[in-house]
Structures are given as C-alpha cells and as structure tokens.
Amino acid sequence: MVESRLDKNKNYITTMTSALRLLVVDDSKLMREAIIGMFADDENVMMEEAADGLEALVLLDKFKPDVVTLDINMPGLDGIGTLKRMMIEHPVPTIMLSSLTQEGAKITFDALRYGAVDFISKPSAMSDISREEQAAQIRGRVKYAAEVELAAIKYIRHESNKDDLGSDVSNGQIQHIVAMGAAEGGYGALLKIIPQLRTDSNSTYLISLHVASEFVDAFIGYLNTCSKIPVKRAVHNDVIKPGCCYISSGTDYMSVHKEADGFSLHISPAPFVTRRGAIDMLLFSTAEAMGDQAVGVILSGLGEDGAEGLEEIIRVGGMAIVQDPHTCFCKEMALSALERSAVEQVVVDAKIPSILNGNLNN
C-alpha cells in the first residue's frame, strides 16, 4: 500500500508501507491472466482476481485491495453496477479497464462520475503501440491510482434542486472570472465541480483542459447533460457571459481581453506542440483583465503548467485554489503550484464548488 503526504515545507512524501494489493475484475480468464502477468515480476504487488461483480464485492472485504481494475461488460452485475456499489459500500481507487472505456465515450464519463479515478482500454493487438508499452501504461496507471486518498473517491450525485443552485442564469455584469487548469485526472475533478456551480452566479468560468480537441467537444456535451450552467466550447472573439462555462483544449492558447462593454476571448494555436503553457496563458490574462477579482484554480495533471500563472493571480490580489494533491490522480501540477506560491485554499476537488458558490456570490 502507498502512503503519501505533504510535509510542513510543502514537500510531497510517498512511502511504500507494504505491498500494493491489486484486485483484477474481468469475466475473461485470459484477460485476467494477461493483466496479472504484467505485474508478475513486481514483488511489491499482491494480486487477486474476480470473474464478476458479485465475486469482486466479496473480495473487497476479504482481500482489502488498494486498487481495483474493473471491466464493464460482465454477466450478472456489470462494471458500472459494481462500481456504484463499491463507492457506497467499500470505496477503493478504481480504474475502468475495458474495450468500452475509450476517451470521450459517454460510458467513460459515467464511470468517472460514479467514482472511478481513471480509465484505460484493454490491451489489444490492434493498438498503435506495442504490448510492452500497453503493459507499461497499465502498470503506471495502477501505481498512480494507489496514491489517491479515499477523500477523492466519491459517487457523484447531482441531486441539488434548482433553489440550491440559484433560480436563473445571471444576466448581470461579470464580477469574477474563474480560470481553471486541468490535465491528466482532470475529467473526474471537473465532474465534481462544474455540475455543482450556481446558475445565478456573477462569475464566468474558463477552463483550459489538456486533452485532444475532439475529446473536449465530447466532454462539453456530457457536462451539458448534468450541469445547471451552460457549458460551451471557447470560440475566438466570443463575448463571454456571467453564469457560463467555456472550455478550450490545451492545444490552444485561450486568453481573456477586457473590452469597453465586457470581456472577450482570444483563441490561437499553442505555439509549442510538446511544451505545455496554455494554463499559464489563461491565468496570466485573467490576472491582467480582472486584477483582484480574478480566481485561479489548479487541478490534477502532470507537469508544471499553471504554477507561474497562479503566482500572478496571487500577486494581483486574486484568489488561488489548488486541488489537494492527495486527491489528484496526477499530482505534479498541484505540487508545482504549491511549491511556487503560498496558496491558502488547498482543498478536495468536491469542496471547490462551495468555495466558488459562496465566496464569490456574496
């Protein structure tokens, strides 16, 4: 089992206190053997297997896994049904490992909404990468998942009534711009945040998400099925409105510009394909446009994008929020931001909406 913490100097400490316990759930014996074989040479991983959801639920108590890989299509209790029961009865960091869990697929977003921490497709000879690379990806995802604390494992219910979230989309002036950055693990964090935002907010929400452009469109479509506020693709020269959310891919640079009668977006291709900087660009422009009414939010992801921009948000007197690294699937972005700046709001992703709904709408 992996144990992780931040020390008082903001250093992130990870220690292996015992062997990682992995439960592999799949109705195919061949697939279970293939996944177990990927960890056969790792003496720090103990493994058990289950052929269906009901068997997996029994093993949760007996084996007490640190991580579960879970198929979707299984006889009896399928993967989504199993995941829902796990999150209620015995939460465990869970990776959906199925031929159905492609990026951008509705069932993938459903699984993340119901509490899975990650997803990956099953190993396949049809893949563009070798079996060895596929195995390395799965091993890496399992070890990332093992570091996620239970505070991040949550079955996301959207049961708040309209009165709780505000009765009408705001038609007033923008008082705050909330600029968020997310990458690996960001889908799950955003699914805990965006659907819980108030519809009568005087804030505008801008998100730079480091995923391929076509997946941004799929995610926007999904968010609009479960969110109160409208979620849109960021478009060049759009005049932004309060109470709305705009999302762009990390392959684009999105910046906000102050106009005589409001604010508009500027979208241009990111100049460096391999070097991330879209989140920093968004945060810097938000700080310039809004001053102390700017809000910066850094969520799960690899790399350092956003750390400099969040420092600028703080410098101009704005609010800075960082997802607690212990609850990030990938911690690097959050840690980089914390190492660079003194951030007062370091919270579980599920608590970010209450900060935005409360502190910015008084």
Number of strands: 16
Instruction: Give the proportion of residues in helices.
Output: 25-40%
Number of domains: 2
CATH fold assignment of the largest domain: Rossmann fold
Approximately what portion of the residues adopt beta-strand conformation? 15-25%
Helix count? 12
Briefly, what CATH class of the largest domain? Alpha Beta
Task: Order the strands across the largest sheet as they lie in space.
Answer: 10-11-9-8-14-15-16
Tell me what you see in this structure:
The protein has helices at about 30-35, 55-65, 80-90, 105-115, 130-145, 160-165, 185-195, 215-225, 280-290, 305-315, 330-340, 350-360; strands spanning about 1-5, 10-15, 20-25, 45-50, 65-70, 95, 120, 175-180, 205-210, 230-235, 245-250, 250-260, 260-270, 295-300, 320-325, 345. Helix 2 runs parallel beside helix 3, helix 9 (about 280-290) packs parallel to helix 10 (about 305-315) and helix 10 (about 305-315) runs parallel beside helix 11. The protein starts with a strand and ends with a helix. It has two domains: about 1-150, Response regulator (Rossmann fold, 3-Layer(aba) Sandwich); about 160-360, Rossmann fold (3-Layer(aba) Sandwich). It has about 350 residues and is of the alpha/beta class. Residues about 160-165 have low confidence and may be disordered. The longest helix is centred in the middle third of the chain and has 16 residues, at about 130-145. It has twelve helices and 16 strands. Strands 10-11-9-8-14-15-16 form a seven-stranded parallel sheet, with helices on both faces. Strand 5, helix 3 and strand 6 (about 95) form a beta-alpha-beta unit.
